[in-house]
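Private note to self, pasted from the team thread so I don't lose it. Backbone tokens:
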């Protein structure tokens, strides 16, 4: 059974940082690219960062480029999203996706 579980969300002040984690099971982790998405109320889920199977290639949405870093550890079946210089507009539910599946998401709220 494919399973992705996000963690690490929470409340943070503008300018702060958070690190999200995605624990994956049920498929060969190194076979799949991993994408982090986010969704705000009333909007479609937006892909914001993707990392290739080996981790050699990453791509980012313009809205997070230079502030967020995606990474993965294939030995641990884990993916991460390091978020810095957070803004109120980054408030959303964040999901990781891979192998055609998504997790339940973790809430990130950026507010003073």
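Design output:
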């Amino acid at each position: 059974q494919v399973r992705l579980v996000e963690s690490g969300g929470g409340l943070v002040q503008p300018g702060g940082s958070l690190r999200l984690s995605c624990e994956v099971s049920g498929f060969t982790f190194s076979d799949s690219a991993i994408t982090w998405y986010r969704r705000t109320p009333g909007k479609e889920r937006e892909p914001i960062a993707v990392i290739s199977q080996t981790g050699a290639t990453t791509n980012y949405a313009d809205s997070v480029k230079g502030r967020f870093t995606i990474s993965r550890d294939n030995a641990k079946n884990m993916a991460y999203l390091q978020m810095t210089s957070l803004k109120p507009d980054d408030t959303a539910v964040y999901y990781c996706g891979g192998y055609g599946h998504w997790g339940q998401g973790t809430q990130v709220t950026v507010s003073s």
